């Protein structure tokens, strides 16, 4: 079925077994292993693996990537990166990747920080609304608005994904933000951008929040115990090749939030911190 010789199949299966993707249950008889079953059960993992072909091409010359960050293939994969020349089909690919991979962390976020006490949510750079839909499914009473670039909003509406969520075409760095907002969320957003625009964005969100309002930040972070190969190695090189952003520690993000005007930042533990950690920043009740 695979068009492989017995020796080639044996090489593949043995290599996969070392990664726990396959398991030899008896001599010559194989099945999927523990992690192989997880891959099959999570389509988002396959989407992540497929898109890595772009990163691998860049890393064929790692020193070249480090010297010439503006000339990588991964930069063009993500259409929102400054200087990207991503075509429409590339934009659809990354929207699919973002949508499917969010399923891996959405429940972790909501289990770690329940939203029962909120009446509304504005998800910034929320793509085609996967996180907002997860929120609505769990909290039907809560009104959800997604802000993203015009092409993303158009795609969401073309796919019939806009109800019962409100989509608003917005450039989060330049467009006006909804005033007197109760809760903003940034899910896997900040690590994609450099320090200066992140600082400006945090200040803009602080200004748009109502006194006592909150900002939820969820993303993988550098310095996560036991996850250094993910935060520092994988995301370090990935974001460098992407041409924008860097992995930040929770302490760095906390300091940036405080510099933007927030008076307190709390971390809430998540089940798999290697996938996402969670910070919630608060605007002072007496803030103007």
Describe this structure in words.
The protein has 288 residues and is of the alpha/beta class. The chain folds into 2 domains: 1-41, no CATH class; 96-282, Rossmann fold (3-Layer(aba) Sandwich), CATH 3.40.50.150. Helices cover 44% and strands 18% of the residues. It contains 12 helices and 9 strands. The chain has helices spanning 6-18, 34-41, 43-59, 62-67, 73-77, 88-102, 106-112, 130-138, 150-158, 195-208, 228-242, 250-259; strands at 22-26, 29-32, 120-124, 143-148, 166-169, 181-187, 209-219, 264-268, 277-282. A 7-stranded mixed β-sheet has the order 5-4-3-6-7-9-8, sandwiched between helices. α3 (43-59) packs across α6. The longest helix has 17 residues, at 43-59.
Write the layout of secondary structure elements.
Elements: H1 6-18, E1 22-26, E2 29-32, H2 34-41, H3 43-59, H4 62-67, H5 73-77, H6 88-102, H7 106-112, E3 120-124, H8 130-138, E4 143-148, H9 150-158, E5 166-169, E6 181-187, H10 195-208, E7 209-219, H11 228-242, H12 250-259, E8 264-268, E9 277-282
Parallel strand pairs: 3-4, 3-6, 4-5, 6-7
Antiparallel strand pairs: 1-2, 7-9, 8-9
Helix pairs in contact: 3-6
């Amino acid at each position: 079925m695979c068009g492989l010789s017995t020796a080639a199949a044996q090489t593949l299966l043995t290599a996969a077994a070392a990664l726990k993707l396959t398991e030899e249950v008896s001599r010559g008889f194989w099945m999927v292993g523990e992690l192989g079953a997880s891959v099959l059960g999570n389509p988002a993992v396959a989407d992540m693996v497929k898109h890595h072909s772009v990163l691998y091409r860049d890393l064929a010359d790692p020193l070249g990537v480090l010297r010439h960050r503006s000339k990588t293939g991964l930069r063009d994969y993500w259409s929102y990166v400054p200087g990207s020349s991503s075509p429409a089909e590339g934009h659809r690919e990354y929207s699919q990747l973002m949508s499917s991979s969010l399923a891996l962390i959405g429940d972790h976020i909501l289990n770690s920080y329940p939203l029962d006490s909120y009446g509304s949510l504005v998800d910034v750079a929320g793509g085609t609304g996967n996180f907002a839909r997860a929120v609505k499914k769990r909290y039907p009473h809560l009104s959800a608005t997604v802000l993203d670039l015009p092409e993303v909003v158009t795609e969401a509406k073309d796919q019939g994904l806009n109800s019962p969520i409100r989509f608003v075409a917005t450039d989060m760095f330049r467009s006006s933000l909804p005033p007197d907002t109760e809760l903003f969320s940034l899910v896997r957003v900040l690590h994609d951008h450099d320090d200066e625009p992140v600082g400006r964005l945090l200040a803009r969100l602080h200004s748009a929040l109502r006194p006592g309002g909150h900002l939820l930040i969820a993303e993988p972070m550098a310095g996560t115990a036991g996850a250094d190969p993910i935060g520092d190695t994988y995301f370090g090189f990935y974001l460098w090749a992407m041409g924008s952003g860097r992995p930040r520690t929770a302490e760095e993000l906390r300091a940036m939030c405080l510099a933007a005007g927030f008076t307190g930042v709390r971390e809430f533990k998540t089940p798999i911190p290697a996938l996402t950690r969670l910070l919630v920043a608060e605007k002072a009740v007496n803030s103007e």
